[in-house]
Amino acid sequence: MLENSICILCCQPKIVCIYDNSAPFALSKEIPIDDIESPHSMASCRQSGSLYITDSGTKCIWKVSRNNFQPTLWLNGISKPFTLSFSADENHLLLLRDGKDSSVLEIYGLDAVLVRSLSLPGSFHFPLHAVQLSNGNFVISHWKSEADTVGKWVISQLNSNGHLISQFSSSEKLQALQYPRHLVLDRNRQWLIVSDYGNNRVVLFSSKSLAWKQILLTREDDRIRLPRLCYDEAKEMLIVGNFGADMNFPGGIIYVYRLTID
Which positions ≥6 away from 195 have C-beta within 8 Å? Predict the structure, then answer.
């Protein structure tokens, strides 16, 4: 999200689509990003008024400023940049690398200088996405190894030193996660919203305890497929990128959900 707009990363063709953040959510601008070889993950930062995009092809992170909408190289020479987000105060970028043995959460200042690397516990494999809570703790979705050939997708909370505080790991079929690739927090950082990508659904958790709250959207009821998320704090509105054949919005990539929780 940037001010008064919804920003969606499209890989085919390689563009960033800018939509108005009020109904009827008209497409206002398309930003070509042809210089970005392999765009994967995008996050917005209100502090800098910019978008940041990972590029595994050229091993870098690009910055797209709202001033001129031109992609510029922000950080290079990093292998396998995967997903990113911003800290609770939006003064730091959180980066995870791609791969089974990715073992650190990297934290950068807005000047692209590495501030610290947070070591992840040894049971963490294939970390997918990380967000920071208002108390400074981190929530990370990842594969948890339970034996040499056994494991499951879980969501874990770590303190600022990388120690495990809590974890969601369910043996119930309904609550079993399948590649929870994207996390967002609501305006008060009370609720954690999870893209349960492999199950084609969006699920709500308590951000503090990681307790399961409810299923928000499903493919069967809401026609979403392979969802990605962003959250408009001002309007308390969840934006879901909806990929695949079941498309229900001009451009085929947005589902808007007004987040109301009892």
Answer: 180, 181, 182, 183, 202, 227, 228, 229, 240
Asked, as a colleague might, if the bond just before 250 is cis with ω within 30 of 0, I would say: no
- In Å, the largest CA–CA distance within the chain is 51
Single out the residue of 54, 135, 136, 68 nearest to residue 96, CA to CA: 54
Q: How far apart are the first and last CA of the chain?
A: 25
Assess contact for 127 and 141: CB atoms under 8 A: yes
pLDDT in tens, 63-75: 999 888 899 999 9
3-state secondary structure of 55: strand
Cα 42 to its chain centre, rounded Å, is 8
Classify the C-alpha dihedral 91-97-100-103 as positive or negative: negative
Dihedral sign computed on CA atoms, order 97, 153, 145, 94: positive
Question: For residue 177, what is the DSSP state?
Answer: B
Name the helix (H) or strand (E) containing 219.
helix 219-222
Spatial strand order of the sheet with 228-232 comes to 228-232, 237-241, 254-258
Contact 3, 21 (CB under 8 A): no
**3-state SS, one letter per residue, for 75-139:** EECCCCEEEEEECCCCCEEEEEECCCCCCEEEEEECCCCEEEEEECCCCEEEEEEEEECCCCCEE
Which of 113, 116, 144, 145 lies closest to 132 in space, CA to CA?
116
Tell me the average pLDDT across 195-208: 94
Task: With CA atoms as reference, report the closest residue to 144 among 163, 165, 128, 159.
Answer: 128
pTM for the full predicted model? 0.90
d(CA 166, CA 138): 11
Sheet holding 180-185, edge to edge: 180-185, 191-196, 201-206, 212-218
